[in-house]
Amino acid sequence: MRKHFSLYDMQGLAFGILLTSLGVTFLKAAGLVTGQTAGLAVLLSYLAPLGFGTLFLLISLPFFVLSWKRRGAVFTLRTVIAVAGISVVTQFLGHAMSFDALPPLLAGILAGACSGVGLIALFRHNASAGGLGILALIVEERTGFKTGLFQMCSDAVVFGIALIYLPFDNVLCSFAGAVVLNAVIAWNFQIGQARSALRRGCPPPFAHSR
Q1: Which superkingdom (predicted)?
Q2: Those residues with Cβ within 8 angstroms of residue 192's Cβ, 6 or more apart along the chain or in another chain
Q3: By C-alpha distance, which of 85, 68, 94 is closest to 13?
Q4: Phi and psi (nearest 5°) for 8?
Q5: What sections of the chain are H helices per DSSP?
């Protein structure tokens, strides 16, 4: 019986949390935004007195119910750990790191690359970063519509809202970062590959919770 929290899975979750948090840190340092639940949390953190970590956790809460019903207890617990970890680590990195020069376009690209790799790590270890990421995984599994492409569609809504509150140049650089993030996921992660790996006896990148 596969352990719910093996050392293999723990290192994967830790790596995913760290890389995703680093991506959000780049965004915050340059005054940018991203898509999905994290994007809403970043955008609200510019407008509300609450920090990103608190907002990210609060916005993700309703999606945990969907996760529990559709993905099971193990996936949901790991996702809760990932969301809480990203909330805490992002706050820590925001205070521990500073940048003398960080061009917005470079920040967007670095954020997209780091977060994309971090999210893939979470997906491969039967977790997600919460929010719409949970729905995206369910949609790909049931319909074949790629997670990255699903997230691009929802990102468009977030960026439309961001245009109201942020300078156009910042939103444009943010969009470039989101394209990088979702391209990394679309090109490097597929539910079908997870099933093939499982049939070959390899550690499954993404499997149903049992």
Answers
A1: Bacteria
A2: none
A3: 85
A4: -60, -45
A5: 7-30, 36-47, 52-71, 73-96, 104-124, 132-143, 147-165, 168-188, 191-199
Give the integer Cα–Cα distance in Å for 166 and 78: 33
- To the nearest 10°, report the CA torsion of 180, 185, 186, 187: 90
Which residue carries 């539910």 as its tokens? 191
Identity of the amino acid at 102: L
What does the block give as tokens for 90?
């992002």
pLDDT in tens, the chain (210 residues): 345 668 889 999 999 999 999 999 999 999 999 888 888 899 999 988 888 888 998 988 888 888 888 778 898 999 999 999 999 999 999 999 989 889 999 999 999 999 999 999 998 998 888 877 677 777 887 888 887 678 778 878 888 889 999 999 999 999 899 889 888 988 888 655 444 433 433 444 443 333
Q: Are 140 and 177 in contact (CB under 8 A)?
A: no
What residue type is 191 in one-letter code?
Answer: I
pTM exceeding 0.70:
yes
Is 23 within 8 Å of 120 (Cβ atoms)? no
CB 162 within 8 A of CB 27: no
Q: Which residues contact 40 (CB under 8 A, 6 or more apart)?
A: 55, 59, 131, 158
Cα angle for residues 178, 184, 185 (degrees, 5° grid): 95
